[in-house]
Amino acid sequence: MPTKEKNWFKMPFREGLLIILIVLFLIVFMLPWSYDITFLNISLVAWIGLSLQLVIPLLAIALTWENKKENQNKGEKSNVPKDF
Predict the structure, then answer these.
(1) Where does the chain cross the membrane (predicted)?
(2) What's the domain range around 18?
């Protein structure tokens, strides 16, 4: 089987890198020594959870918006709604 047909879907490099960074971010902050760290009397794990809830959707929107612009520049039809 050729290399191109190995994957069942094609993932852009930036999105794959984003997934790897999210997993590494979670691994680092879920290690045992980070449980006892507090900031403003709230654990570091809670701060990281909050930051991920805010940052990840913003990054996803930015990637989607950039993907839409790239597709429009190439003349391809985008799956993203026009009002986005």
Answers:
(1) 12-33, 39-65
(2) 13-74
Within a domain: residue 79? no
Q: Is residue 80 part of a domain?
A: no
pLDDT tens, residue by residue, 7-31: 677 777 877 888 898 888 878 777 7
Can you give the pLDDT at residue 24?
87
Burial of residue 82 (CB within 10 Å: 0-12, 13-18, 19+) is exposed
In a domain, 81, yes or no: no
With H, G, I as helix, E, B as strand and everything else as coil, classify residue 4: helix
Q: What is the pTM of this model?
A: 0.51
The DSSP letter of residue 3 is G
pLDDT of residue 8: 72
